[in-house]
Write a structure and sequence with these properties.
- The chain contains ten helices and seven strands.
- The chain is of the alpha+beta class.
- A hairpin with a 5-residue loop joins strand 1 and strand 2.
- The longest helix is centred in the C-terminal third of the chain and has 20 residues, at 197-216.
Length: 227
């Protein structure tokens, strides 16, 4: 705690009276502070920085600290490379998760242990990081939850291109390329593949043939190009 030694008042450059308090920290350093700052300050800047480093050193060993730290950096630090995609878009971190000690403890308490193969994911990409909007998501869940996903609705079912591709048994590029290159409607591309299973069968046969050629000869692509 800071100990008050004396108080004074003076006029600043604007002609207003300002109250200051001369305070001493537990470490022995003394400094003039504004009285309003003295009331809510518990220690000097040097002690506060030292305490912050000690606490950070302890919490940084926790398996979730890097996740918590990265979340705060991309939302609160304008110098972070990912700030343009998070903080600049208005994505914030809940007040209860910001503080180094109390915030990190609350984050661990709210989220629990991270299951293997998962990472921090927001349920609604338009909202910030909070207990009600965060989960431990798998790579597949996060891929289907991207802002740049194209959703295709067909026969009352709405799925991403990757989900439709998995259901049809074809690579996602088989659906994505006609949409991006030829500007075909997504519903038309998916419905065409659904109606023509022979196209999917021909593609699978071609893939199996290429795999067989690769196994037989490492220079299969040269042989194929010469035909």
């Amino acid at each position: 705690m800071l100990k008050k030694i004396e108080t004074r008042a003076y006029k600043n450059s604007s002609g207003n009276w300002v109250s200051q308090t001369y305070a001493e920290c537990a470490c022995g350093s003394r400094k003039w502070l504004r009285t309003s700052n003295f009331v809510r300050t518990k220690m000097c800047a040097e002690c506060r920085s030292k305490k912050y480093k000690e606490e950070s050193a302890v919490w940084s060993k926790h398996p979730l600290f890097a996740t918590w730290w990265g979340m705060n950096q991309r939302c609160e630090n304008p110098e972070s490379p990912a700030y343009c995609m998070y903080g600049a878009r208005g994505i914030t971190v809940a007040d209860t998760w910001r503080d180094v000690k109390d915030g990190f403890n609350r984050f661990v308490q709210d989220m629990g242990d991270r299951p293997e193969g998962t990472s921090l994911d927001r349920v609604d990409n338009a909202l910030g990081y909070s207990k009600n909007n965060c989960r431990w998501g798998t790579i597949e869940q996060q891929s289907n939850n991207r802002r740049d996903n194209i959703f295709v609705s067909l026969n009352g079912v709405t799925q991403t291109i990757a989900q439709w591709a998995r259901e049809l048994g074809v690579p996602a590029e088989k659906i994505r390329n006609p949409i991006r290159v030829y500007h075909l409607p997504p519903e038309y591309v998916v419905s065409t593949l659904l109606k023509n299973p022979s196209r999917r069968a021909r593609w699978k046969l071609r893939v199996r043939t290429e795999l067989t050629e690769r196994q037989k000869n490492p220079l299969w692509w040269k042989i194929r190009a010469s035909k």
